Amino acid sequence: MTLAHQATLIARKDLLIEVRGRHAVGTLVPFAATVLVSFGFAFGPGRDLLERVAPGLLWMAVLFSAVMASRRAYQTESEDGALEGLLLAPIDKAAVFLGKAFAVTVELLALVVVVLLLVIVLFDLSVANPFLLLAAFVLGAIGLAAVGSLFGVVAESARTREAIFPLLVLPLVAPVLIAGVRATDLAAAGRSSEVLSWLGLLAAFDVVFLSVGVLVFGYLLED
Amino acid sequence: MAAAAERVLGKATSRTGEHLLGIVTFVALGVSAVLSLVVAPPDAVQGEVQRIMYVHVPAAWLAYLSFFVVFIASIAYLKTKKTRWDRVAAASAEIGVLFTSLAIVLGMLWGKPVWGTWWTWDPRLTTTAVLLLIYVAYLAIRRITDNPSRRARWAAVIGIVGFIDVPIVHLSVVWWRSLHQGPTVFRLGGPEIEGTMLLALLVAVAAFTIAYAYLMTLRLRVGRLEERAAREALSPLVGAER
Known about the structure:
The structure holds two protein chains of two kinds. Chain A is mainly alpha-helical. Chain A has one domain. Chain A contains nine helices and no strands. The longest helix of chain A has 32 residues. By secondary structure, chain B is mostly helical. Chain B has one domain. Helix content of chain B is 80%, strand content 0%. In chain B, helix 3 runs parallel beside helix 5 and helix 4 runs antiparallel to helix 5. Chains A and B meet through helix 6, helix 7, helix 8 and helix 9 of A and helix 4 and helix 5 of B.
């Protein structure tokens, strides 16, 4: 069984749990919506300011949701000794990381659709180039999911100190936040040529963190 | 008894080196202080306040040196699983966080009179701030688990990933700034630097580097003692003759 095949199996398992458990629909989407409405209270009700900060608010909502989704991905494993079962399974540990990252990416993208609609409605974000925006979200979600899935296992084992996980993840994903917001801003303004360099940065971040994750993930689990 | 005497003796010789390094550190820092406060001339534009450079730049250098050492020690730990490398990484990270904070605070004290603001989102400032946050998280992780081997492995992974992240953070902030360009970024010391000023700066960097080595030996000894205390507390042989 190749690494890709193993990773696909893990991702399918995780997504199946999500579909059946409806955690994302029940918790993540309302959470993201609440965050956005709170931002509205913080920066509204003037439309000018909201429109200007809309890309940033959008990505902040995605970022917080990514933290929750990655933690969730390992919470399911802590029940009934599922993680031990996963570790005993004859699969590469890197496949667990890649599978989790893939599943979290898919969840985040599903979430982004809702968040984007909310931001368009609530904050008047106009999108001149939806394809570049989509590319920014796909690349950004992969980066967030890669970092989240790498350290989610730490968050799960350190459950008593909840703040540790965001403390670790938020500074690490600073480039995703910056590049994502800039790309969204430029795509919304229709300055397509400038978006590409930011997409390149996001892609570089994804490649670096996916490959580093594959290399080091096993060390986090070795107990 | 012989074993105990040997232990004491062994400890004494290792402490001698430590004391020697301590003396060298204080002499070097003293020389650096004289050079930067008395010998080097005040800056033509900024005046006396520019002397902060002689502590700010070495502190920033130590910040990056420390985290590079954490990176190398973390790789070495994962490769060899020798606890010595974990102690090196832990010691260097603590010293790094100390000097990163120092560099940022000194930079603010320098920035206020010269730039007129405590903080600007300059690429180097922002990267250093993100660096500080990453390694504060690193130290926080080191405190959460009672399992020493797991703590060492987690810390090592973060020590590696955190350091790899730094160039990406820096690049993103450089691009970010170039789109939001405010006032032209002030360059440290300008493109040209006067001879005695350069000498004072180089001596300061050397003195700080020696101070780093001294702090490392102290912290490593504390690390060894901590480990021994933990081991002996757990051992059923406490108080027994060995």
